[in-house]
Design a protein that fits this description.
Strand content: 5-15%
Distance between the termini: 14 Å
Oligomer: single chain
Strand order of the largest sheet: 2-1-3-4-5-6
Number of helices: 14
Shape: globular
Number of domains: 2
Number of strands: 12
CATH superfamily of the largest domain: Glycogen Phosphorylase B
CATH class of the largest domain: Alpha Beta
Helix content: 40-55%
CATH architecture of the largest domain: 3-Layer(aba) Sandwich
Order of helices and strands: EHEHEHHEHEHEEHEHEHEHEHEHHH
Length: 374
Amino acid sequence: MTLRILAIEPYYGGSHQAFLDGWIANSVHTWDTITLPPHSWKWRMRHAAIHAASQIEQLRTTGNKWDIVFCSDMLNLAELKGLQPQFFSEAITVLYFHENQLTYPSQTPREWDHHFVFTNFTSALAADHVWWNSRFNQNAFIENLPAFLQRMPDYQPLLEIDSIAPKSEIHYPPIDVPLNPAVKQNDIPILCWAARWEFDKDPETFFEAIRLLREQGAIFRLSVIGESFQDSPNVFAQAESEFADIIQRWGYQPSRQAYLDTLIETDIFVSTAIHEFFGITAVESIVCGCFPMLPERLAYPEVLELSHCQERGCHFFDGSAEQLAAKLADLIKQHDTGNLWPYDSQLIQDSMCQYRIKRCVQQMDQRLVDYAAM
């Protein structure tokens, strides 16, 4: 059964774009899209519903009809439904949470930022089906909503929270990485940190751990890649100078292949994130043969299935620079003896196949068919 899907993405860039493009390219369904460029995210959340309503009106004048409307958490779905009531009286809506604004860390929290949490909340209430990119994301949002709503002076909509979980599903974002990466043959191990150059990825902890490693006399190469911004933390410029003699790669990679090449040549992948609702780069690094070293928090234990695979505890640290440095020092010693992995690395690489694009797209395509048949 082939459906017609309208996808609405107000922040068409980064992981949001990769998710949507990958799904559409591999889907059996027919898609139309309404997108906006990936900047000024707060304004996107405020005005995207008005823009989408106008675009829907134009598309409908040429005879377009859709079975499903799929949108991300950057859209105020409740507003859009109010602006196009006749259309949405027939269309099935699926809302996908790449992130949520309730548990997103903020350096300078302000009262008006609460509006974006309410946008997520009302959108979840308005959607027919709610998808999350991890169980951690769903639980973090729903479990923290009561405390947030209790800030209201009166008429707190606490009972409405109970309607979200029954219509929720977990659909992990798919990865598209070639299988069977080349065997690593580095005499000196390469460590890689790959993320947006922003405070919520906690680069300070990473560079402090690297500093401690250097003081201990550890020998390694260093790749620090990712997208930087005008307000990226100053620690990056400082680190580029301090660690210049061991840098393998630095900064934003010019192509998808250059990014994959970085992971393929890396021995140990490190994350220090304090905000991560899934961890696509961590998963891709494992498929590329890296040994992951991750903070034991956020979605990482779920994604690596730590509760079912206790031997994977070796991939986690407590979030501190001191323990990260100690664990990296041990890994570098293990690498030098030719025994980086304490178990068969093929086991964890095989388990990451559940996130591969073909499998995920088949599952998501089928769920849309199920909804249309209800």
